[in-house]
Amino acid sequence: MLDFGTKVVAGVTPGKGGQKVEGVPVFDAVDEAVRHKRVNASIVFVPAAFAKDAVIEAVEAGIRLIAVITERIPFHDALEFQPYARSRAVTVIGPNCPGLASPGQAKMGIMPNHIFRPGDVGVISRSGTLTYEIVNAISEAGFGESTCIGIGGDPIIGTNMVEALALFQRDRSTKKIVVVGEIGGTAEEDAAAFIAKNVTKPVVAYVAGRTAPPGKRMGHAGAIIQGGKGTAESKVRAFNDAGVRVAQYPVEVASLLAAT
Amino acid sequence: MKFLEQKAKEIFARYGIPVPRGVVASRAEEIADPPLPCMVKAQVLVGGRGKAGGIRPANSLEEARAVARQILGMNIGGYTVKQVYLEERLDVENELYLSYSIDRTAREALLMSTPMGGVEIEALPREKIFMGCVPVLIGPQPYLWRSLLKKLSLPKDIGEQVVDIARKAYDLFRKEDAELVEINPLIVTKNRRVIAGDAKLVIDDNAEYRHPEYANLDQDRTPLEQEAHEKGIAFIQLDGNIGVIANGAGLTMATLDVLNLKGGRGGTFLDLGGTDDPGKVAEAFEILLKAKPAAILLNIFGGITKADTVAVGVKQALEVMHANVPVVARIKGVNEDKAKQILRDIGMYPAETIEQAAELAVKVSHGGA
In what order do the strands lie in the sheet with A20-21? Predict the structure, then answer.
């Protein structure tokens, strides 16, 4: 993150206050960090069992943007901290996500730096490494990214696909949008309906899990076809109906972008 | 984590939700005192048991044993029946439906109910279903029960029992970290009692650590999936012949999709996660090799992942397992070229892109190269 240009001003680990990591001071609690440093965002890497605690602590300390990288957080914890953060007008990204990055500006998360190039493509993705694959393809094709948001692979996420689309539609440095979806839930169908109504920038999509069997959770907690809902076909159809071109192969996203 | 009906009902009963009396058996001979007249119900994790002949009546001990003998060992929707549940037969007046699940968009719990129970909820028209969101930070408020009762339009004494069950089921949903609590049918008997006719319970795997009492109760995994689960490896067996292993769930799914587009069929979903520890890679490969794939397709997109140590893990696993399965590997990451050389040295097939790797995997799975 430091290499990417992010101003990491403090770390928090209970019991490790007073230490320094890469020159960055460590505090015992978020409110201590906030008292000593100017902080407006926080990244949560703590283990799943303690993630709810960490998010609430950050919200209470007045942080406005929280990216939760941690995976395997119980749904019921997310059902508590997500609405709570929203009620305090705090934006949460994730959990179970690689974070977000704006090349040339800052990164909050674990995405590899070398795949990015500054540019005007906004990327929204439910995945981690698949996002890297696609961002890499976008960069190699000569495009670049304005911001890439890994919204997370869990069923209960802080910023959903529609909300991320709305942000990119408003963002002046974004000219084109890439959406990387997968099976499970109706985020892509909701996104398609939102695009048809509200998004004027060209959108290209990819949907993972065309061959996933129903009833099986494909690694991500949110990636499951249940009761006939959440299939890749339904998502691809919804995107097509909204005029969004859907790539068959991940790298094909780049050539579809070139054609928009 | 999915539960068999009998286990789910045991948990329901703990929360005070009325369930019929019953006994479980895995052999017909062990049935001694079933609640007669009874229903003999196959214990499998799929719907449609009744249609498949997995739920049948019995009026005497002899009949119960005979029916149990027929049902045990049956194959229903790919599951072999290993247990039957013998349950008191109810005089059914009416069948309702009640469930709690998670509403992803609202980020709340979702109560669904309908007076038209006994069929799959997905088959019903939306306007016949009561849907009410519950903000879990606050919990259900009285208006929810009022709206529920209005929609179900039940007699007062029955409505009160339904609300009581709805409250208890919500308590269970929260305390047990459930993804789904479903009572279908919720039976109204001729003598006006409301009882859970069936019980479906799915508990969040991510909350397993809060419920150690349920460890290893999951019946929905193949033996190999169970072995992988115990080792902390995200692994699913599929019906194809090419073993697919990648890092990250989305990339693994995408790799399976690309393989399919190239005419192959994935036999496994194995998400290696963020590791490049050769020992962990070898462990994952051992699971993969036990699935007996005709070829293996490895796809790693590494940020800081060291490609060469992944390759070392692959080499180790193949040596330990004395396996001569062809491995096609596309590894992006630090020391890519070294990784390719390691793979070439052991006669494996490095590839540059997912598409190339998938094509090559299809070819070598047929014995060509």
Answer: A11-12, A24-27, A20-21
Which residue ranges does chain A devote to CATH 3.40.50.261? 99-259
Structure tokens given for A60: 């209470």
| Strand spans (E) along chain B | 22-25, 38-42, 55-58, 75-76, 79-80, 84-88, 92-103, 108-114, 130-134, 178-189, 194-196, 200-203, 234-237, 242-246, 266-271, 295-306, 327-334, 349-350
pLDDT tens string B178-196: 999 999 999 999 999 999 9
State how far the Cα of A240 lies from the Cα of A246, in Å rounded to an integer: 7
The residues near B347 (Cβ < 8 Å, ≥ 6 apart) are none
Question: B241 with B288: CB under 8 angstroms?
Answer: no
Query: Looking at chain B from residue 60 to 99, which residues have their Cβ under 8 Å from any Cβ of chain A?
Result: none
Are the beta carbons of B260 and A130 separated by less than 8 Å?
no
User: Domains in chain B, start-ordered, CATH in brackets?
Assistant: 21-88 (3.30.1490.20), 92-213 (3.30.470.20), 223-365 (3.40.50.261)
φ and ψ of B276, to 5 deg = -130, 15
Residue to test with chain B: of A114, A129, A178, most B Cβ within 10 A: A129
Residue A129 pLDDT class (50, 70, 90 cuts): very high
Give the gap in angstroms from C-alpha B137 to the nearest C-alpha of chain A. 6
Question: A72 and B253 in contact by Cβ < 8 A?
Answer: no
Q: What mean pLDDT comes out for the span A98-119?
A: 96
Which of the listed CATH numbers 3.40.50.880, 3.40.50.720, 3.40.50.300, 3.30.450.20 matches domain A11-93?
A: 3.40.50.720
Listed in order, the ranges of chain A carrying CATH 3.40.50.720 are 11-93
| Tens of pLDDT, residues A177-228 | 999 999 999 999 999 999 999 999 999 999 999 999 998 999 999 999 988 8
Residue with tokens 């699913």: B236
- In this prediction the pTM is 0.94
CATH T-level topology, domain A99-259 = Rossmann fold (3.40.50)
Question: How do B295-306 and B266-271 pair as beta strands?
Answer: unpaired
* Three-class SS state of B108: strand
DSSP annotation of A212 reads P
Q: What secondary structure letter does DSSP report for B254?
A: H
